[in-house]
Specification:
- With 138 residues, the protein is mostly helical.
- It has one domain: Arc Repressor Mutant, subunit A, CATH 1.10.10.10.
- Helix content is 52%, strand content 10%.
- The protein is built from six helices and three strands.
- A three-stranded antiparallel beta sheet has the order 1-3-2.
- Strand 2 and strand 3 (97-102) form a beta hairpin.
- Helix 3 packs across helix 4 (62-69) and helix 4 (62-69) packs across helix 5.
């Protein structure tokens, strides 16, 4: 069944089956918007640094995260607000501290892909029982 809306059926297309397929994969506008927001957030080096730090080091508070990514606490807090608004990180209270972690399957999967080219082999001290991070070869 063709996905071309009735109002546009009189528009000439060259390859109707391919147009139908293209229309079908773009049918979920809300999901498309969310994915674009995630990709946009990843497009900023500071936000990407924050996400990679959280992805590999685990839950961190603002001050530790700011030290790791070489940004001010206020700049990290601002970036985290944006990332939370897009559902890319969550916050949880641990005593007096608020710790942040990566959230969302799309975010995690994209960070895995980016890590393959960016992180390389790193010994993670906080995870002493775990092996060094070794991305799978592409």
């Amino acid at each position: 069944m063709h996905q071309v809306p009735a109002a546009r059926r009189d528009v000439r297309v060259i390859d109707p089956d391919q147009v139908c397929d293209a229309t079908a994969v773009l049918a979920h506008g809300d999901r498309l918007q969310q994915s674009a927001a995630v990709l946009d957030a990843l497009g900023d080096v500071n936000r990407l640094s924050i996400l990679l730090a959280l992805h590999h080091a685990g839950d961190l508070c603002v001050s530790d995260l700011a030290f790791a990514v070489r940004m001010s606490d206020s700049a990290v807090s601002h970036a985290l607000r944006l990332l939370r608004a897009h559902g890319m990180v969550t916050a949880h209270r641990q005593g007096r501290l608020v710790r942040y972690r990566v959230a969302g399957e799309l975010t995690t999967r994209l960070l895995d892909v980016v890590s393959e080219g960016v992180v390389g082999e790193v010994v993670l001290h906080a995870h002493a029982g775990a092996a060094a991070h070794r991305p799978e070869p592409a």
